[in-house]
Amino acid sequence: MGFDERRIRLEKSGNGDFSFLFVDTHATKECKEKLLAKDINVDDVMELEFCTERSKKSYLNYKNLLEKLYESNPDQHRGDNLAVWESVQPDSRVGRMFGIGSSDPHFLVAGTPSIACGSKSYLATRQSQEVQNVKIELENVQRSRQELENRLQQLELERVEREEKEKRERIERDEKEERERAERDKREQQMHKKLEDIMRKLSSPDT
Fold first, then answer.
1. Computed from CA positions of residues 37, 43, 46, 51, in that sequence, does the dihedral angle turn out positive or negative?
2. pTM for the full model?
3. Alpha-carbon separation of residue 147 from 90, 134, 144, 157 (angstroms)
4. Which one of 55, 179, 183, 191 has the largest count of C-beta atoms within 10 Å of its C-beta?
5. Residue 10, class by beta-carbon neighbours within 10 Å (0-12 exposed, 13-18 middle, 19+ buried)?
6. pLDDT tens-digit profile of 24-44?
7. Cβ-Cβ contacts under 8 Å for 24 (sequence gap 6 or more)
């Protein structure tokens, strides 16, 4: 992910300034975890741990110069300053700067695309982010639809199983009633036969 795209993502989470972006891309994993947990912030320069000595030195010099700028100009807007960052990167090549790469420095530091860059990097990154957002939204819709289809299939399976169970229970109940009816008929026949035998004995002349 490029610096432009990362800044845009950080903006959405409320951490779009250059100081946070630099720490987020150059600090150690443990330091970034503390930063996200808000145990420390980008102004706790002595608490920050960077992956390289150059990153640490650049950031410390940058923050020190910013503080001096604010002290000498109380009315100065307190925020990141591209000129100050450029001053601590004297060995930057044309088109590339440490901590910024080939991205638009005006956009990364100040949040406003430069006219010189024609906003191409910013627009390309913004468009890329919008495309990515559409893809994510589409994936969410497709996932929700698949989950709904799976749920409908599960409900249909449960309905079929329930109907089959009710059918089996009905058949078993009918068979049981038929057996009980047959048993009653058999007993009634036996009782009738016994009664007939008794009546014959009673009506016989020999009795």
1. positive
2. 0.48
3. 56, 20, 5, 15
4. 55
5. middle
6. 888 999 998 898 888 988 888
7. 6, 10, 15, 32, 35
Range of the domain at 207: 119-207
Count of domains in the chain?
A: 2
46-84 confidence digits (pLDDT tens): 889 999 999 999 899 988 888 888 887 766 656 777 888
- Pair 21, 106 in one domain: yes
Residue 161's CB is within 10 A of a number of other CB atoms, namely: 10
The residue whose two tokens read 């000498």 is 72
Q: What is the mean pLDDT of the chain?
A: 80
Q: Residue type for 143, please? A: R
